[in-house]
Amino acid sequence: MKVPYLFFLLFASVSVSFAGEGKVHLFILSGQSNMARFDPRPTFIPAVESAFGADQVVVVKDALGGQPIRRWYKDWLVAAGDTTTGPIGDLYDRLMAKVKPAVEGKELASVSFVWMQGERDAREKHASLYQEAFNGVLDQIRKDLQFQDLNIVVGRLSDFDMSNQRYADWTKLREIQMEIADSAEYGAWVDTDDLNDGVDAKGRAIHNDLHYSVEGYKIFGQRLADASIELIQGRLAGE
Fold first, then answer.
1. Cα–Cα distance between 4 and 20 in angstroms, integer?
2. Of 122, 140, 110, which is closest to residue 17 (Cα–Cα)?
3. What is the pTM of this model?
4. In this structure, what DSSP letter does residue 6 have?
5. What confidence tens digit (pLDDT) does each residue in 175-230 have?
6. Nearest alpha-carbon partner for 12 in 4, 1, 29, 24
7. What is the per-residue DSSP string for 132-190?
8. What's the CA gap between 151 and 122, in Å, rounded?
9. Residue 40 gets which letter from DSSP?
């Protein structure tokens, strides 16, 4: 379904839920640089709070620029002949260390995993391993939160390197991200091709940049929120 530095933000408050008394809607935001640079406060948080109530929403965000998916997927198996090194699964552990306290003692009405990552894996030519790794991250979340019916919102890689000159698997990763979202029962991917033109946070003009413009990040947040809300409402309507 298509819906037209390091920092951490945690927003949590609870009373009554859209889906039942005492339940909350959890939004987990994670990924690499375009998620790390994204501030959910101007658009994402107001949108989901408007849809479900400020006291019914928990938003946890943790992201780090330049990181491959293996830092979230704990069972990553390096491809034969691959020489990449570094930690495996540590950023997932860091994310869960913030998610679990945020929902402790709360009953979950929904869990939405909002993901913006893949640039590093496109550069490292790991497209063939990406979908398995992403699905593995989802399984980790299901197990840790004891919640099976995840909603998935994926920010698709932008049009930064459509010729695959600098990031050899760029277009492959885009296709895989769409397949991940489209094949999920409750999944959506968000277009970012128009978000990387304009003016960045330092006042510089950008065009087809790796990162987004100031206005682009605001639009990005609204699109992520719209996709998340649509999935949750669709799931609740089907119950």
1. 30
2. 110
3. 0.90
4. -
5. 999 999 999 999 999 999 999 999 999 999 999 999 999 999 999 999 999 999 99
6. 24
7. HHHHHHHHHHHHHHT---EEEEEE---STTTT-SSSTTHHHHHHHHHHHHHHSTTEEEE
8. 24
9. S
